[in-house]
Amino acid sequence: MDVETIRTAGLGDSTYVLSFDGVGLVVDPQRDIDRFEKVIDALEVDVRWVLDTHLHNDYVSGAKDIAAKLGAELVIPGGAAPAYRHRPAFHMEDIDGPGFTIRPIHTPGHTPEHMSYVVVVDGVEQAVFSGGSLLVGSAGRSDLLGMQRAESLARLQYISVNRLASLPDSTALYPTHGAGSFCTASITTKGASSIGAEKKTNPSLAHRDADSFVSSHLSGLVPFPAYYQHMGPANLAGLPPSDETPRPPVLNEEQFKPISSQVTVIDARPKKEFAAGHIPGSLGVELRDDFGVWVGWVAEFNSKLVLVVDPDQNLDEAIRQLARIGFDQVAGVVTNLSVWNMKLASHQIVDLAEFVSMVKSGPQMLDVRAPSEWDSGVIDESVLDYAPDVASRPPSGLDADQPVLIACGTGYRASVAASFLHRYGYKPVVLADAGVPEVLAALNK
């Protein structure tokens, strides 16, 4: 038996392709299915089943599309009941394959319908694909459907992770959510493990009772992206394949002006270029692995977008990341902003030494790191406001007539927040390529 892992770094998720004597299955694929087809072709595996563990909160599933393309059977938890044909998976109702068995295990807690899938060979549980249930060093969070249901789901999660822990110690554990995912209840750094290893080290399995688990499981949760609330409905309905979306046209200034009031402009260029000059009102979200996540956090869901990129940036990657989370309305692309005649907006961006010098002189300071990061230390008299919250309303306690120093951990979120401060009439000064910990270290020398 061979299990290939395909990581989606920006989401913190893994998709799996299992092959056994040339026959196999795919678990939890994202919407851009061409990535998985290449792996399947390379393995020369006949995929008979495509499994979804749950209605994902962090991406649009590609299970329906790849199953149709490969002629495989689509298997989805029975409690999900999506609006398209599939085979419903029910607890302990085995799916027999040639030489192996797929055994669904109902593991609610991350979502109500959640199902894990155990692969059994010769009566031995060889592997379990645990989706958002038992993770490496953690468990899938239970608050993504709202705090009203969080305690009930957490109590279910306690039962579910311990149900999986009853599998043989040698059973390989392959969770979908991992390092970098907002779907984990606590930090996890590895992708795969084993049941035995998790029984020894996973804090989620160390609780003696449900009350203790729930208290720990629901404490210290970090905020999660705004687009998450739209993924469940999208996966219930089933969106069209992402490769059916037309490639957006390249726009010049004259073509952009008539639609400027109808679109959200996402400037994906490096933050220093964005600071030097950008279309007024645009959002600076630099293209990197989690570009799509941040656009989905600060832009209205599936709003009509215009992307600004440099000619040497990977436009296809930007569009791919947006499609993964259901943003299909890219109305156009701008690749030559430097030759436009319109008056561009700009803001100051500085290095660590200059930023520290400015902090010492007393200007107002905005720290847009996540709340969990503030516990490690903040700059005196800073206004603390997480970057996604700045996107929804102006920070309190800032003087719009004075410059606002903005910092996060690396400069990425500070640049995003600066976009909104512009809209609110402030004068942002962004710390580039460094963060608050470096500022504190410099101040304390």
Would you give an account of this structure?
By secondary structure, this protein is α/β, with parallel strands linked by helices. The chain contains 15 helices and 23 strands. It has helices at 34-43, 63-70, 147-165, 195-201, 210-217, 228-237, 253-256, 271-276, 291-298, 315-324, 352-360, 371-374, 387-390, 412-424, 436-443, and strands spanning 2-8, 13-20, 23-27, 46-51, 73-77, 87-89, 95-96, 101-106, 115-121, 124-131, 134-135, 138-139, 172-175, 193-194, 264-267, 283-284, 305-308, 330-334, 348-350, 364-367, 383-384, 403-407, 427-431. The strands form 5 sheets. A 6-stranded mixed beta sheet has the order 1-2-3-4-5-6, with helices on one face. Helix 9 crosses helix 10. The radius of gyration is 23 Å and the shape is globular. The mean pLDDT is 95.
Structural class computed from helices and strand pairing = alpha/beta
Biggest pleated-sheet summary: 6 strands, mixed
Which range does the strand content fall in? Answer: 15-25%
Give the termini separation.
56 Å
Helix share of residues?
25-40%
Spatial arrangement of strands, main beta sheet:
1-2-3-4-5-6
Q: DSSP helix count?
A: 15
Mean pLDDT figure: 95
Beta strands, count: 23
Rg (C-alpha, Å): 23 Å
Shape: globular
Considering the chains and any ligands shown, give keywords for the structure.
23% strand; 29% helix; 445 residues; six-stranded mixed beta sheet; 23 strands; alpha/beta
